[in-house]
Every structure is written in C-alpha cells, then in structure tokens.
Amino acid sequence: MAGLLRDLRAHLAWQREEGGAEVMDMERPQGPPLPARSGGAAPEAAVVPPAASAPLARRTLEAIRGELGDCQRCKLCSGRKQLVFGAGNPHARLVFVGEGPGAEEDLQGLPFVGPAGQLLTKMIGAMGLQREDVYICNVVKCRPPGNRNPEPDEIAACEPFLRAQLNSIGPEVVVALGKFAAQTLLRDATPITRLRGQWRTYQGMKLMPTFHPAYLLRNPAEKKPCWEDLKAVMAVLGKPAPKP
Known about the structure:
Blueprint (H helix, E strand, L loop, with lengths): L1 H16 L43 H8 L18 E2 L5 E5 L4 H6 L6 H12 L8 E4 L13 H18 L3 E5 L1 H8 L5 H4 L4 E3 L2 E6 L2 H6 L4 H14 L8
Parallel strand pairs: 2-3, 2-4, 4-6
Antiparallel strand pairs: 1-3, 5-6
C-alpha cells in the first residue's frame, strides 16, 4: 500500500508539472482555488472583484450624524462653536455641496445661512425649488479659522462623512459649489473656471461643478455663466427654465 501511494503521488506531481490543471490533489482538502503559479494563468474561479468595487453600505443621515458625534478628528474642532452637518430633504433629487461653514453657519449650526447662503436660497428659488426640496452640506463640517481655505488633512478627515451623506441620499444631481467641493469629489485639481459647466459623474450621480455663491458675491459678472449651469441641472431634473 505504501508503494502504491508513492506511485500515485509521483503520478499526480508529474501531471501537475505537465500542466494537468484538471487533476484534483487528493492530499489537500478542497477549498478556494489556489493562485496561479508564476508563468501560468489563474483559474477563472479564482478571480475575485476587488473590495473597492463593492458598493458602499447605505446608512441613514441620522446614523451618519451619530457616527460623526462630537467630532475631534482634525484641528478644526478646537475653534468651532457648532458642527454643521447638513440640512434639507433626506430624499432630495438635488444636493448642493459647498466648501465649509462660515461665521453665521458656525453660530446657527446650519449650512449656507450667511450672505452666501442668502444668494444660494435665491438661486434655488430661481430654479423653481425651495430649500426644503434639496439637501445642502459642505466638504468640511467645522468652520476654518477666519474663513480660510480648508487644509488637506481637514478635508481628508471629513470626506468619508460627505461621501456617506451623498450615498445615503442618492440624488440624481449633485451641484459642487466652488473648487474645493468639485476637486474633492472628482479627485481633479483642474481649476473651477475650467471645471464649471461640464457634466461629470460621481458614483453614478450626475455632477455639475459651478461657482460658489461667495465667489459670485465678489464677482457678479460670473452669475450669468453660473445660471447657465443651473439651467442645465434643471433640464436634467425635468424642470422648465423660467422665461426671461
């Protein structure tokens, strides 16, 4: 019997060396297919989609806010008065994403309630919508000191929560207001002056980059191209553009 087993092992080893992939190894418990040897093709059954391709688990906005908690994940926490998570319709077809809270937002705990927010409210109204119809949030949830630009580590700390918010809502269209929102979501360092007005895609959602309302307050001449961007959004949502 011992000689028979030795002969059988030798025969199986020879089959493997000759490329006999269909031969079952009788000494090894059958489990997941083994990786291919150097120079050989992996068995088809061994191909597994990468983990990154799996869809994000969809959580409610309440659950995401609960996970964020009294966030201390970056240095912005030390100077904030309130964390500004987001506000609006949790099932909105349209989401606006800005840069970060300003002084008034920090006081009230709500996004876009200062001068730039008042302009955004007018823009939403011109589209035939109300703030209650859409969802509004920012890339970072705490006010940067002196309204400075958010820094890369601060964006990195907040970005998972922004992505979770968008995944939870699942809007048809995302409007990225300004370069930080557009560049963060698109992983694209192209200036907003070149990104704006060009449809892009974010996780299956249509994304329109355009100017931030604060920029429009400083540069009123740019309101016209921004309005063209919003009219393109209205067309996707099936809303007629107002007559001039």
